[in-house]
Amino acid sequence: MLAALAVVPVLRLAVVRHAVPPGSARRSGCDACGAPISVGRPWPALGPAARCGGCGARVGPPPGTVELAAAAAAVAVLVLPRSSGGELAAMVWWLGWAVPLVFVDASVHRLPDRLTVPAAAGTWLLLGTAALTGAGVTPWVRATVAGLGLALFFATTTLLLGRRGFGLGDAKLALGAGALLGWSGWAVPVLGLLLALVLSGLVGLGLLLTRRVRWSSHLPFGPYLVLGTVAALLLVG
Questions:
Q1: Could you say which of 79, 96, 119 is where a domain stops?
Q2: How many domains does the chain have?
Q3: Each residue of 129-143: pLDDT tens digit?
C-alpha cells in the first residue's frame, strides 16, 4: 500500500502530461501561470493537494482521487491470488499504466499510445516470463489470443461504426486487459467485457436520467474496461 502511494506523483504527472486534446503538445507546466511541473519538482502540484506551487491553481485530477485509485489498485493486487511472481508483476505493471489512463480518458476522452502501448507490451512480456518460469506455455498462448481477440473486437467497431463505435485507444488498452483476463481462462475475457459494458450502461443511464448527457453524447469507455477487468479477475480468483 505504501509503495502504491509512493508512486502517486509519477501517476499524477502522467495524467497532467497526457490529459490534453488530441493533436496538442503534452502539458509541461501549470496552465494558469506556466510554472514547470516534473518529477524533479513534484510538490505541491503532484501531491495530494494537486495545487500549483506558483499560483495555487488546481493541477490535474481533484485532490486525493489519484491517491484513492492507487490505493484501490494496491488492494486489488493484494486480494487477487497469484501462483507466480510473473503473474503478480504483470498485474502490477498493467495497473500502473491503467490508473493514469482512467483519469486521462475521463478528462479528455482519449487513451494515448504512450501509455497504452507500454501497458500492453509489458503485460505480455511479464506473462511470458511467468510461462517460462513454471506456468507453462498454454496460459500464455491463451492470454495472447485473448488480448488480440479483445483488441480486434474494439477495433472492428471503430472501423464499422466510426465515432459511434469504440475508439482505437480502447482497442490498444484491451490488448493488456485481454491478456490478463485470458491468462485465467477462455471465458474470463467475455466476463470482463460484459462487466465493463454493464457498468458503462448503468452509468450512462444514470447520466441520461439526470440530464447530464444526451443520447448523442460520447462517453469514455476506458475506465469501465479497467474496472471490468479487475472485477472479473476478482470474481474468478
A1: 79
A2: 2
A3: 999 998 899 999 999
